[in-house]
Each structure stands twice: as structure tokens, then as C-alpha cells.
Design brief:
C-type cytochrome biogenesis protein CcmI; transmembrane helix; transmembrane; mainly alpha; about 85% helix; about 120 residues
Length: about 120
């Protein structure tokens, strides 16, 4: 019976050591590049930035933030909001250009098909 206790204790100890040592033996992850950090900012919506600005203002009014911190954070988030809006405008312009070119391509195809049908009618 005593032997069973030693075996179970040894197994628990071995398992604990395994849990502690395995993270130390894994290869270190490379530091994240600036591009991957920018990709994370792409997922931030303008609504979440506005919500954060609103929370900052509430915290400042409740005197949880100093004036210096409030001004600095407000400026940072306003710049972030401006960047997001600029990116959205660029995407809209690209989409409009793509849509215009698509419409032109479709119209040219229709004109070609009509010209082809007219030639076929004239030949009959």
C-alpha cells in the first residue's frame, strides 16, 4: 500500500515538472514586426475608437485621469480615428474605381456582342 502512494506521488511530481519545464524548452517566438501590429489596428472600428474617447471623457470628468493624461490619450485616439477614416475613404475610392471599370467592361462586352449580332443579321 505504501508503495502505491510513492508511485502516485512520483507520477504527480513528474507531471508537475513536465508542465513547468516544457515552456522553457520551446523555441522562443520571434518579436512581432511592425506590419503585424498594423494589421491588428486594421480590425479596430471607428465606433470602438469613438466609444473609447467617450469613456476617456467620462473618466476625466469623474477625475480618474489627470488633465495631462486625458489630453495625451484624447490626442492619440483622435489621430487614430482620423487614420481609420482616411483608410475607409481610400477603400471607398478604390471600390468606386473598380465599380466604374467593371461597368465599362460590361458595356464594352455588350457593345461587342451587339455588333456581332448585327453582322450576323446583315449576312442573312
Amino acid at each position: 500500500m505504501k508503495m502505491m502512494g510513492y508511485i502516485v506521488s512520483f507520477l504527480i511530481l513528474a507531471f508537475c515538472l513536465y508542465l513547468v519545464i516544457t515552456p522553457l524548452l520551446r523555441p522562443k517566438q520571434a518579436t512581432r514586426s511592425m506590419e503585424s501590429m498594423e494589421d491588428e489596428f486594421d480590425h479596430i472600428s471607428i465606433e470602438s475608437v469613438y466609444a473609447t474617447l467617450n469613456e476617456l471623457e467620462m473618466d476625466y470628468n469623474m477625475q480618474k485621469l489627470s488633465d495631462e493624461d486625458y489630453q495625451r490619450l484624447k490626442k492619440d485616439y483622435e489621430e487614430l480615428a482620423a487614420e481609420i477614416i482616411a483608410k475607409e475613404k481610400k477603400k471607398e475610392k478604390k471600390a468606386d474605381k473598380n465599380e466604374e471599370s467593371l461597368v465599362k467592361d460590361i458595356e464594352s462586352e455588350i457593345e461587342e456582342e451587339l455588333a456581332q449580332l448585327r453582322k450576323e443579321r446583315e449576312e442573312k
